[in-house]
Amino acid sequence: xxTDFTSQAVTAGTGTPAPIRKRRRTAAAPRVILYLIxxxxxxxxxxxxxxxxxNSLKPLGEITAGGMMALPEQxxxxxxxxxxxxxxxxxxxxxLRPYFxxxxxxxxxxVAISTILGALNGYVLTKWTFRGATLLFGLVLFGCFIPxxxxxxxxxxxxxxxxxxxxxxxxxxxxLVYGIGFSTLYFRNYYAAFPTELVRAAQIDGAGFFTxxxxxxxxxxxxxxxxxxxxxxxxxxxDFLFGASFSDFDSQPMTVALNNLVQSSTGVKEYNVHFAGxxxxxxxxxxxxxxxGRFFVxxxxxxxVKG
Amino acid sequence: xxxxxxxxxxxxxxxxxxxxxxxxxxDEGEFLVLVGPSGCGKSTLLNMIAGLEEVSSGDIRIKGRxxxxxxxxxxxxxxxxxxxxLYPNMTVRGNISFGMEMHKVPKPERETKIAQVADLLQxxxxxxxxxxxxxxxxxxxxAMGRALTRDPDVFLFxxxxxxxxxxxxxxxxxxxxxxxxxxxxTIVYVTHDQIEALTLSTRIAVMYGGYVQQMGTPREIxxxxxxxxxxxxxxxxxxxxxxxxxxxxxxxPAAEFTLAxxxxxxxxxxxxxxxxxxxxxIVLGIRPEAITDEGGADRNSRAVHVVESPIEITEPAGxxxxxxxxxxxxxxxxxxxxxxxxxxxxxxxxxxNMEKAVVFxxxxxxxxx
Lengths: 307, 369
Prior knowledge:
The structure holds two protein chains of two kinds. Chain A has helices at residues 2-15, 18-56, 60-64, 78-86, 97-127, 133-144, 148-162, 168-192, 196-205, 209-217, 222-238, 241-246, 254-263, 271-304. By secondary structure, chain A is an all-alpha fold. Chain A has two domains: 2-56; 86-304, MetI-like (MetI-like fold, Orthogonal Bundle). In chain A, helix 2 crosses helix 14, helix 9 (196-205) crosses helix 10 (209-217) and helix 13 (254-263) packs antiparallel against helix 14 (271-304). The longest helix of chain A is centred in the N-terminal third of the chain and has 39 residues, at 18-56. The relative contact order of chain A is 0.13. Chain B has eight helices and 20 strands. Chain B has a six-stranded mixed β-sheet with strand order 6-7-8-3-9-10, sandwiched between helices. Chain B has a five-stranded antiparallel β-sheet with strand order 13-12-11-14-20. In chain B, strand 17 (320-327) and strand 18 form a beta hairpin. In chain B, helix 2 (92-102) crosses helix 3 (107-121). The model of chain B has no long low-confidence stretch (mean pLDDT 88). Chain A binds chain B through residues 195, 197-198, 200-207, 211, 215-216, 219-220, and chain B through 50-52, 71-73, 77-79, 81-83, 85, 87-89, 98-99, 102-103, 146.
């Protein structure tokens, strides 16, 4: 039906005589200017990334000779392989690879667990409400806005007591604690708009607490799960403060390692390697955005309509 | 002892009492309709029967078994919701079989059951669709199909037709009635639509303000409303209720009331209930179909009296013409035959069947005759 409508509208538009066409041409001018401005901003925003990519693909000599903005005369992947596996990071010449692995080992469980717990919290706070649920949700929200710096010392003490200080599981724990606030917020608001009658129908059908969650709510939670995963992944992957504070040499995440790579004071500054390392550190979040990004806005809207 | 018994059940949220002490008892196979305006406690009562809301005090028994503390799934009930509550991520087949799956019914048995239900409700061709691809009426059928697979002791319907358009509502209403006659299962049905209540039920409980105002068969409720609320709520167009005074007219009691111009009219009562109460203020209740043109009056009635009164407006409705006049300062609607030449402004003879008149006390609002 809608296609019929548009085709009708189009024929009506082209079939009408000159005056309307004239108006179209005048209407096109602002549009052209608009696109020009947009293109300009696009270039402006992409320029840093271009500079990084270009410089990561040229030998160090070309950069130090002052050709920062020029395309490489001699294309090379050497800076990339150096950054990945041989560059000096802190005291060891291991490249960024082990730290990349650390970050993955930290991000995946932290994102997965905080998302699942957030979904469960949201489910309980909206569909199995109890006395004080609103207050509890308020406190969880409050947790979202506690500045990182405040918890550094108590958290260090806690991690020590739990025996996971300076380990990857320790970092997972820290990010989990911080992540639950946001994931709860997302899922609570999303599930607030989820019809309670469905839960009641499932109850009458004989489904229990977890069955209802798994069979009825989770299959409809795609958009908000994507939002939550993107948010958590980006935040945890990009975190520097907790990584620098609570990790040991062998458990440092990518962000801290990148800093160490760039700050290593022995020898010459290998800018091309630094550029390659910085891109490597940014790639996973970029990938997550590209793959899941189109759900992001949709999910945000879906959650924000009610609740 | 009834099949479904609600025994002094109440419900309160904190200090707010939404359902006052309620006693209802119905037999197996009855169709009980809980009817009332929004906020009267009817849905709460239904949810209490379903086990979705706890009973604050009192008890609900199904087949003599107390339901206090019994989970909804273990009550052997099935429920159809106002919004249908179909699981959006499952196909129609999945929706219907979900309950059986939860009750660990083996797969072959589930399949036969689905086929049976699909056949009964004519939804066979929809089984592989998602609820989002169905029309309102189809969703309604699927929701009923899901309930049917349970072979429940009691069916609960929570305003199942209120989301449908007018025509479909009438069709589905008929189907629900057919279904009840075919299956003979006990049904509790909540609605705010008094027509649904009258057409479907074998028993009606009219609710208002957390109280059951009156419980009875549709005929009892319609002909003998217990109080002003029931009289005004049930029936469409609703009963004419207007102030009058009991006077003595030649030895028999009659109702005296004012017409539009300030003159008064007399309607002698059919019975003697108010014989010794001259001067008492009353509210007289007469249904529109008991106020007719002279030719259309009920010939079996021995208490048809004529009142000459100016017509304010007429509403031709095809099969009948509704004629409005002013009695006791209120609009009084009469139901005339369609071809009666009644015109606004005319003075016309209204024939009132006083056998059908009811009388209420204006203070207590209860029925006195």
